[in-house]
Design brief:
By secondary structure, this protein is an alpha/beta fold. It has a single domain, classed as NAD(P)-binding Rossmann-like Domain (Rossmann fold, 3-Layer(aba) Sandwich). The protein is about 50% helix and about 10% strand. The chain has a seven-stranded parallel β-sheet, sandwiched between helices. The longest helix is centred in the middle third of the chain and has 29 residues. The relative contact order is 0.14.
Length: about 280
């Protein structure tokens, strides 16, 4: 996809961070926007900023982890604009804690937003794009956590991001087999100066229990504080929008903006290959 003027972009997690930066870039290119976020107040502010470029903007207050809400936002977009040319499934959250202690509800929250929040939109939007038979693009936000080996710290996040990468790869396999003119990208950054470290402010009640002592533990509070510091020194948002649109124009599948993470990827792949090759030596 190389032409954007007059096209329609549906962006989840559009009120803050990466989604917001992407929305501003889309607006500057003359796109019509459907902004989706659970934070209605911030989303309306984002819509005002996008409107400064002359963009036509629809806002949909949505919990992407709830299929019915995600579906409703897609239906609202189609009712308003009649097409969806670019989907940026970006909404995400981050948990904190070790695999020994992190509560099950935090696993459920991470998978519900970071994985199923993408799946819900792929399920609804990909058939629309294929039926349109015009150039389109689907981009997902994962993380370097989706490409490197899992860790004992924050495993729900790593797990959900590996799954997000796999969803994007599955979409790519589909569009290639069908011959559809739909590009696919998955964004796998390290730290970016977003608002994700404040995602607890928007945690749905069904994924929360204030009485659980874990959330007052030194482990949890220390992990959260470290995350705040890492996010604060992350890649500036002003670089993100243009970089992601370049990936779309080039139909670049894996967008890894932080080159210092390449050794993490190589190490994981080498370990897999080395263990797989051991089977060649076995005579069972």
């Amino acid at each position: 996809m190389k032409e954007f003027f007059g096209k329609v972009a549906l962006i989840t997690g559009a009120a803050h961070g990466i989604g917001y930066s992407f929305a501003l870039e889309a607006a500057s290119r003359g796109m019509k926007l459907a902004l989706v976020d659970i934070d209605e107040t911030a989303m309306l502010e984002a819509a005002k900023e996008c409107s400064r470029f002359g963009a036509e903007v629809l806002t949909c207050t949505t919990d992407v982890s709830v299929y019915e809400e995600a579906k409703a936002s897609v239906e609202a977009t189609m009712a308003r604009f009649g097409q969806i040319d670019l989907l940026f499934a970006n909404a995400g959250i981050a948990t904190a804690g070790s695999i020994l202690h992190i509560p099950i509800r935090d696993w459920e929250w991470a998978l519900a937003v970071n994985t199923m929040g993408i799946v819900h939109y792929v399920h609804e939007v990909l058939p629309i794009m294929e039926a349109q038979k015009t150039p389109a693009h689907l981009m997902c936000t994962a993380s370097i956590a989706g490409l490197r080996a899992g860790m004992a710290i924050n495993p729900p996040y790593f797990c959900s991001k590996h799954a997000a990468v796999s969803v994007a790869e599955s979409v790519k396999a589909e569009v290639e087999s069908s011959g559809s003119d739909i590009g696919v990208s998955v964004f796998c950054p390290m730290y970016v100066a977003t608002d994700i470290d404040n995602c607890e402010n928007h945690r749905p009640a069904r994924f929360w229990d204030a009485s659980d002592p874990f959330y007052n533990s030194e482990e949890y509070l220390t992990a959260r504080e470290a995350f705040h510091k890492n996010i604060a020194t992350g890649m500036p948002l002003k670089k993100i929008g243009k970089r992601l649109f370049k990936a779309i124009e080039d139909n670049q599948m894996y967008t890894v903006t932080h080159t210092q993470t390449i050794p993490y990827i190589e190490s994981r792949h080498r370990a897999i290959e080395e263990d797989a090759k051991k089977e060649l030596e076995l005579q069972l």
